Amino acid sequence: MGWLQNRFEENFAITTVDWALNWARANSIWPMTFGLACCAIEMMATASSRWDLDRFGAGAYRATPRQSDLMIVAGTVTFKMASRIRRLYNQMPDPKYVLAMGACAIGGGPYFKYGYHVVKGVDLIVPVDVYVPGCPPRPEALVEGLLRLQDKMRQQTIAKQAEAV
Amino acid sequence: MTPQEIAEILKQRFGDAITEVAAEALHPQVTVAAERWHEVACFLRDEPHLAMNMLRCISGIDRHPEPYIDLVYDIVSMQLGKANGETPSPTAVWANNGGISIKVRLPRDGGHVCSVTDIWPAAEWHERETFDLLGVSFDNHPDLRRILCPDDWVGHPLRKDYVFPTEYEGIPAGTAEVTK
Amino acid sequence: MVFAHASLLAEGGTDLLQILAIFAVAAFFFGFGALLVGRLLRPNRPNPDKITAYECGELPLGPGWVQFDLRFYVVALVFLVFDVELALFYPWAVVFGGGGTTEAGGAATADALQSIRWAAMWDMLFFFGVIVVGFLFLWRFGYLDWVRTTRTARADARPPTTENETRTLDDARFRQTVNEFAEAPAQART
């Protein structure tokens, strides 16, 4: 978190600041439209009115990585697409998160054995925070994945971390 | 113009270039020798009673372990009957009238055939796909390069003896034991 | 500080400047305060990809500067002229509609006001007329069309037929097909 990170021990003021920052970040996740295949349809359904993602603050899909926090990789990742995914991930500003949606993004999915052009899981290319299994995952599952991501965000802290041994 | 009639016309006109006729089959087809294919294709398009002006699809079949690759060209006439003064019916296309498939048999290694892009422009991308995935090269193709796989891909994936890569640009690429 | 200025207000002096000063300082701190908080709180992890141009994941081909389409300039210019005209209509409209105060010592009687209104109307009609001439010029010469054709070009535009020179049909085979379809009913049985 820039200047404030790792300067102070954990204390009451820090926890309040942490709470405020994490609350702001978790309730305004702006995903990047990254539907690659069929999971994109379920992602669109999740964003539509019945399972509304916008009530979590996550309905503002951005087409550009520059304005987005979350990359929902929804669909099969091919080798041709892999370099583009990595470049787009690099172009996202920090703090950034990745949600692997669907079996193909988690580990190659149904194309694991005979897919000569399929990357067996997007975590071979970008670091993934949340995995949402399914083929395709139901919109409720994607909503749960988003809520888990929010929980993960709420664990973040700017306090001084214990030194790694 | 039923497939049988078309096959008859072709047999009469080209004789020995037509190696096999299977006009009664579910997928009516005529096998043409590879070196005369361009001539036959021009005839199919320009002959007023056949007028086969639409190439629907080019498919490639790998006959491994036989050393052949078959190319199947599905062509159809969208203006059937115009030569007789009738107005072409759009639904004739679905009545399995005025269309036939041409099969061309090529050797698996180094097989090449003349491109029909100058006859049917739709062939351009179909031939690129056949080249990319099966390794058949087409002479006089305006732009023969890979269309689906990346440009630096090694091998032709839809061949039956294709060995899956273990890695591409540093990304591990799954099991290498997947061969038939 | 607020109480100090409240007392100044009570004095009724020239405190406008002070109010504006407070306003400017508050605006400054709102803006730059938000930026400062962001600067303190946000992570800073630059990498070369972050500063390259965005091209949907591809490496950028060529410069990102494209030639500015001049039609936008025309739109902006036309808008500016008519917007200023509209702004100049407002005072007239207020006076004509009977609004506006007479505190500064304008016409006090109703008759004088009436004559001012109608004189102003003729003035305004003259002004409007001049602007309308400009507007008709723009309209007639196609400056309001996004795809601009002048009147003479419209008269020339007719679909190319087999008699005309085929200016747009370069493909000889396409032309041949067009001819064939044009002659189809007359074709004799062969």
Description:
The complex is a heterotrimer of chains A (165), B (180) and C (190). By secondary structure, chain A is α/β, with parallel strands linked by helices. Chain A has helices spanning 12-26, 39-47, 79-91, 103-107, 139-154; strands at 31-32, 70-74, 97-101, 130-132. In chain A, β3, α4 and β4 (130-132) form a beta-alpha-beta unit. Chain B is of the alpha/beta class and 180 residues long. Chain B has three helices and nine strands. In chain B, the strands form three sheets. In chain B, strands 1-2-5-4-3 form a five-stranded mixed sheet, covered by helices on one side. A two-stranded parallel sheet of chain B has the order 6-7. Chain B has a two-stranded antiparallel sheet with strand order 8-9. The termini of chain B are far apart. Chain C has helices spanning 2-11, 16-41, 48-51, 70-96, 110-140, 151-156, 172-183. Chain C is flat and about 80 Å long. Chain C starts with a helix and ends in a 7-residue tail after the last helix. The chains are: A alpha/beta (165), B alpha/beta (180), C mainly alpha (190). Chains in contact: A-B, A-C, B-C. Chain A binds chain C through residues 1-5, 21, 64-66, 81, 83-85, 87-88, 90-91, 93-95, 158, and chain C through 39-45, 47, 49-50, 52, 54, 56-59.
Q: Which spans of chain A of ≥5 residues are poorly predicted at pLDDT below 50? A: none
The most extensive interface, with participating residues per chain, is:
A-C, 21 and 16 residues
Radius of gyration of chain A: 17 Å
Strand content of chain A: 5-15%
**In terms of structural class, how would the helical and strand content of chain B be classed?**
alpha/beta
Rg of chain B, Å, rounded: 18 Å
Share of helix of chain B, binned: 10-25%
Which geometry of chain B do the CA atoms define? elongated
Strand count, sense and closure of the main sheet of chain A? 4 strands, parallel
**How would you state the average pLDDT of chain B, rounded?**
86
Q: How is the largest sheet of chain B built, in terms of strand order?
A: 1-2-5-4-3
Describe the sheet with the most strands of chain B: 5 strands, mixed
Report how far apart the termini of chain B are. Answer: 42 Å
